[in-house]
Design goal:
Blueprint lengths: L1 E7 L3 H9 L4 H4 L3 E7 L9 E8 L2 E13 L3 E7 L6 E10 L2 E10 L9 H25 L25
Antiparallel strand pairs: 1-7, 2-3, 3-4, 4-5, 5-6, 6-7
Length: 167
């Protein structure tokens, strides 16, 4: 099982605001190239995201199922990667002062990745999930658009004084 941990300078609620917006999934999950649909009950347990991975013209349509939704502590997702198989991804979040610690654990459930030696699967997956946590941190720490924490980022004027633009 591949494990990554990252300290994020935000609250656990900030992390779960990003996770709860299915349309943000391709922004933080490495390999996801586009969203096709977000189930009406997302992020409730059993809800689905329909997305694709890969680069055109080699794009595979797949989906992710939410298996556990326990904000602001834990989410367990089950990405279905077409020919790659199914994985189980657990995201655990714990407060630490003004920040939080986010741990992601991933293991193969079905498909050819199950036959890889653990050391190979873990090395590849840890490398990818380090970037996944890096992207999730950008969104959670920055108050991503589409979350309650990012309201000022979408069409709202800043209260800061504007600087003149030199032309």
């Amino acid at each position: 099982m591949a494990r990554n941990v990252r300290l994020m300078h935000c609250t656990p609620d900030d992390v779960f605001r990003v996770l709860s917006n299915g349309w943000l999934y391709p922004l933080w999950v490495v390999g996801t190239s586009r969203m096709r649909d977000v189930g009406d009950i997302w992020p409730a347990e059993g809800a689905t995201l329909h997305h694709s991975f890969g680069s055109w013209p080699l794009v595979v349509n797949d989906m992710t199922v939410m298996r556990v939704w326990d904000p602001p502590h834990r989410a367990v997702l089950e990405p279905h990667g077409g020919p790659i198989g199914v994985a189980r991804v657990a995201i655990d979040v714990k407060p630490r002062g003004d920040a939080c610690v986010v741990r992601i654990q991933e293991e193969p459930v079905t498909g050819p990745t199950r036959i890889l030696p653990d050391t190979v699967f873990d090395a590849i997956t840890r490398w990818r999930n380090a970037e996944t946590l890096h992207r999730l941190a950008y969104l959670a720490e920055g108050g991503a658009p589409g979350t309650n924490g990012g309201a000022d980022a979408i069409g709202h004027e800043s209260t800061a004084e504007k600087e003149p633009i030199d032309r």
